[in-house]
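Throughout this chapter, every protein is written as a compact record of paired, labelled lines. An example of such a record is reproduced below:
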Amino acid sequence: MTITERIGSTDTIYRSYTIADFEFRDDTEGDGFTFEGVASVVDTPYTVRDRWGEFTETIRAGAFNKTLKDSGADVALFVNHQHQSVPLATRSAGTLNLSADPDLRVVASLDRERPSVLDVRSAVTRGEMRQMSIGFTVPKARDNWNDDMSEREISEVALLETSIVWKGANPHTSGSMRSLDEFMASLVDVEMDADEIRRAVTFFTDRLPDRSAEFAERDRADRERLERKARRI
């Protein structure tokens, strides 16, 4: 599974947003660029699709505060979540500053001597990369689901990275299962907590055909058999 949307999960979650407010400018001092943008919005519901269907998710104001207050929590700025590449900027190097006002805002000092910086600057200013994305995990019991698991509110995230992206990561796996055996094997390989299982059960229950008429006919036939037996006694 590419992205996990579950309570207590240790997998990284990715959320992407159109860059509505950004700026590339020359540094007043030095020979670099400064990038400013909003990496994540808060108190704004959005739709997420996972393998069990769609649900509405909201990151609440203050969710980033713990990470931002932790000076030891390093966060990097990448392009398209390419973690194997050299990051554009990092908190530990002092080249990436993050703030929540309450939306998560990124200010990054970028080196104009690096080809990757020139590439992303060109793509953003030309409108070819119009989104920012964040990667995070949700600490245990810091999110809340409604009863039918169709709405989720997140009150705290452990922020791992931010990215400038062309298109946001799709939380729904693109691979198709060729057989029931492969599908069941994929479930065995994934650790699922109680809330994951509840969403899975709901997903499959909703896909079951309505068999109420069949059951009613079966009950009627059973009653008639019992009545015939009773008359023979």
Observations:
- Residues 57 and 152 are 5 Å apart (CA to CA).
